[in-house]
C-alpha cells in the first residue's frame, strides 16, 4: 500500500460498486413503483410499504459491519451484499409481473425481494464505506466521499433512461428481462471493480474464535462511546431534515407559485444540480486547502447544515425574501456540501477506537441514516396533511414543515460541533475542525 492509502484509480473502482448498487435500487424505487400504481392499478400505499421494507432492513447494518470486522476482510461482504441486492431486484420484478395474474403470490414475492434488497444494500454499502475509511488518506476523504456518491447518482442517471427505453412497449416479460439484465450487469461490474483492491491494504487476520466478543457486547461498547453516540444522533436528525422535503417541494412550488408539472420537475432537477455542485465544491476545497482550516470536514458540515436551514427558512417565507429558483439551488448546494462532508467525517470517525469495531460503528451510522431517510419523506408529507387540517391556507402548512426542517438542521449544527476531534496515531492531532473543535 502506498503512503497515501488507496490511489484515485482504486477509489474510482470502489465508486463503480456504488454505481452498480444505484442502478438496481433506482429500478426498485422508481420503475416498479410506477408499474404497480399505473399498469397494475394498485394503491400507492402498496409500493410505499415495499420501499419501507427496504429501509426497515437498514437496522441490520450494524450486524453486517460486525461480521466484516470479525472476518478480517470486507470484500466477501460487499460481494455477498451485491448478490443479495441483485437477486432481490430481479425477484421484485418477477413478483410485480406475477401480480398481474396472481396478486397475493406476486406481492408476497415482491415483499420478500424488497427485504432482500434492503439487506443486500446494507451489507454491501456498510462494508464498502468501511473499506474506504480504512484505505483512504485523511486529506482525500472529502473527495473520495464525493466520488463514490456522484458515481451512485451516475448509476441512477444511466439506468433510468436506458431501462425506460427497453421497457417500451411494456409487458411483464419485458420488465423481468430488463431487470434481470440490469442486475446481472450490476453484479458483474461490482465484482470486477472490487478485484484486488483490498489486497493493496495491510492484511487483517480473522479474529480468533476464543477472542471474539458477542455482537451485542460490541454494539453496547460502540454506543457507550460519547462521540459515536452523538454522531449517531447527528446523522439521524440531519438526515430526517434532509429527506423531509423530498415529497413536498414540488407540490409546494405548484401551489404557491402556480408552476406547471413540467416546471416543478425542472425545479427538482435544479436542486439536484445544486447537490452535485455542493459535493464537488467540498471535494475541491478540501483537496486544494489541505493542511488549512478550510480543509475541515466538520466546518463544511456546519456550513452545509446552516446553509440548508437558511434556505428552508427562505422557502417558508413563500418567496417574500428571495426568488424561488435561487433558493432551491442554494438548498441543493448546502445539502450536497453537508452530505459529502458528513460521509467523509463518518469515514474518519469509524477508525476511532478499536479497529475491530470499525464496521459496527459504520453500521450504526448507516442504520441511523437509512431509517431517518425512510421516515423523513413519510413524516414530511404526513406533517403537511396534519397542519392542513388546522389551517385554511395550504401554503401555511408547507411553510410550517419547511421551518421545522430548518430547526432540525440548526440542531444538527449544534450536535456536529459537540463532536471531539479525531486523533491519528503517530501523526499528532488530526481534528475534523481545527477552528471549532481543536484542543
TrEMBL record:
The chain crosses the membrane at residues 36-56, 77-99, 105-131, 143-163, 175-197, 218-242, 269-287, 299-317, 329-350, 362-383, 395-417. Pfam families: PUCC (PF03209). It is found in: Membrane. It comes from the Bacteria. Keywords: Membrane, Transmembrane, Transmembrane helix. It is a multi-pass membrane protein. Its main location: membrane. Belongs to the PucC family. This is BCD family MFS transporter. It comes from Methylobacterium brachiatum.
Amino acid at each position: 500500500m502506498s503512503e497515501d492509502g488507496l490511489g484515485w484509480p482504486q477509489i474510482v473502482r470502489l465508486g463503480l460498486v456504488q454505481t452498480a448498487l444505484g442502478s438496481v435500487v433506482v429500478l426498485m424505487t422508481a420503475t416498479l413503483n410506477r408499474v404497480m400504481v399505473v399498469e397494475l392499478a394498485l394503491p400507492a400505499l402498496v409500493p410505499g410499504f415495499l420501499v419501507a421494507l427496504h429501509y426497515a432492513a437498514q437496522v441490520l447494518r450494524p450486524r453486517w459491519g460486525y461480521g466484516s470486522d470479525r472476518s478480517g476482510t470486507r470484500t466477501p461482504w460487499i460481494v455477498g451484499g451485491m448478490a443479495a441486492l441483485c437477486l432481490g431486484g430481479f425477484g421484485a420484478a418477477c413478483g410485480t409481473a406475477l401480480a398481474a395474474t396472481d396478486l397475493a403470490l406476486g406481492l408476497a414475492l415482491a415483499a420478500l425481494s424488497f427485504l432482500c434488497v434492503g439487506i443486500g444494500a446494507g451489507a454491501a454499502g456498510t462494508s464498502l464505506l468501511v473499506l474506504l475509511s480504512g484505505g483512504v488518506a485523511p486529506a482525500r476523504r472529502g473527495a473520495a466521499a464525493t466520488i463514490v456518491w456522484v458515481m451512485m447518482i451516475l448509476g441512477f442517471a444511466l439506468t433510468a433512461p436506458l431501462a425506460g427505453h427497453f421497457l417500451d412497449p411494456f409487458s411483464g416479460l419485458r420488465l423481468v428481462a430488463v431487470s434481470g439484465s440490469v442486475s446481472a450487469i450490476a453484479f458483474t461490474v461490482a465484482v470486477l471493480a472490487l478485484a484486488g483492491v483490498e489486497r493493496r491494504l495491510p492484511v487483517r487476520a480473522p479474529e480468533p474464535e476464543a477472542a471474539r466478543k458477542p455482537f451485542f457486547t460490541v454494539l453496547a461498547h460502540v454506543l457507550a462511546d460519547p462521540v459515536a453516540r452523538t454522531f449517531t444522533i447527528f446523522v439521524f436528525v440531519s438526515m430526517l431534515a434532509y429527506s423531509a422535503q423530498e415529497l413536498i417541494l414540488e407540490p409546494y412550488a405548484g401551489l404557491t407559485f402556480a408552476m406547471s408539472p413540467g416546471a416543478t420537475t425542472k425545479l427538482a432537477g435544479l436542486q439536484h444540480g445544486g447537490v452535485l455542485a455542493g459535493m464537488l465544491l467540498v471535494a475541491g476545497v478540501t483537496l486544494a486547502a489541505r493542511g488549512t482550516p478550510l480543509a475541515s470536514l466538520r466546518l463544511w458540515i456546519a456550513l452545509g447544515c446552516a446553509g440548508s436551514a437558511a434556505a428552508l427558512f427562505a422557502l417558508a417565507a413563500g418567496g417574500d425574501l428571495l426568488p424561488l429558483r435561487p433558493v432551491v439551488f442554494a438548498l441543493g448546494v448546502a445539502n450536497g456540501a453537508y452530505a459529502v462532508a458528513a460521509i467523509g467525517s463518518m469515514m474518519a470517525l469509524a477508525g476511532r477506537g478499536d479497529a475491530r469495531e470499525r464496521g459496527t460503528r459504520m453500521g450504526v451510522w448507516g442504520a441511523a441514516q437509512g431509517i431517518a431517510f425512510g421516515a423523513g419523506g413519510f413524516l414530511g408529507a404526513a406533517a403537511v396533511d396534519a397542519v392542513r387540517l388546522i389551517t385554511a391556507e395550504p401554503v401555511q402548512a408547507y411553510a410550517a414543515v419547511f421551518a421545522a426542517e430548518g430547526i432540525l438542521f440548526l440542531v444538527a449544527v449544534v450536535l456536529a460541533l459537540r463532536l471531539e476531534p479525531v486523533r491519528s496515531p503517530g501523526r499528532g492531532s488530526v481534528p475534523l475542525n481545527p477552528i471549532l473543535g481543536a484542543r
